[in-house]
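Q: I have 111 residues here and want to know how they pack in 3D. Can you give me a structure?
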Amino acid sequence: MNLVVFLILVLGGFMAFKYIATGIEKKQIKKEVFDSLGSVRGGETDNAELTAVIERILEKKQIEPIEVFAQLDKNKGMIYFYYKYKINTNYLLFRRSEIIEVEDEMASYGI
């Protein structure tokens, strides 16, 4: 009986750890995309370069993007970006897939 309770506690702890780790990874990807776009923004930047930055980060994390869009609005001096990706989490007993959508904007300098 004690072994069963111990196994349930260990499995529950592992699942909680994976759930928290997935949440941290989602926040980390969003921050990394924002920081990377912030380092490449400027007057010579184009939409293809901004999109490539987002795709490179998702590729580095071994996550396949579903949709990636980045637009430089030179009139307003803003960068608008949107990306959507699927993240899979393995909880040992089952797998969970979640589709994440991020839409944000930032100021662009040098325009």
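Q: Anything worth noting?
A: The CA atoms of residues 29 and 93 lie 26 Å apart. The mean pLDDT is 90.
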